[in-house]
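User: Second chain of the day. Same drill as before.
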Amino acid sequence: MLPENDAEFLVEKGYAYRVSVEGGVAHLVIASFPFPATYAPTTADLLIRLLPGYPGSQLDMFWTSPDVLLVAGGFPQACAHKETYLGKSWQRWSRHWQAPWRPGVDCLQTYIAAINHELAKGI
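Assistant: Same format as last time:
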């Protein structure tokens, strides 16, 4: 279900993951994804939805379970909405990158780098 380069990247990084299909969409769940110290908890399951057409189509947003909050208090920016996937509630991180998706270049590796860049902002 995952392109070979994505599966190799996840294994290389040591991520424990699973892929499930629901409603025609592949759902990648990375267990115990690490978050910077500005968030609590410091690990959570990370969900990335791989819409039909991926890897040629852009990925958008990500989700966590359990909820991830700011250590200083409250939800991170644009993260208070919940959605249900795979039979459980997920916190939606409404993040939309402005850079155009580059088919054949962008993949899970570049997307997770963008997620980590966003998380480093601590907002």
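Strands lie at 16-22, 25-34, 39-40, 43-50, 62-65, 69-70, 82-85, 88-93.

User: Great, on to the next one.
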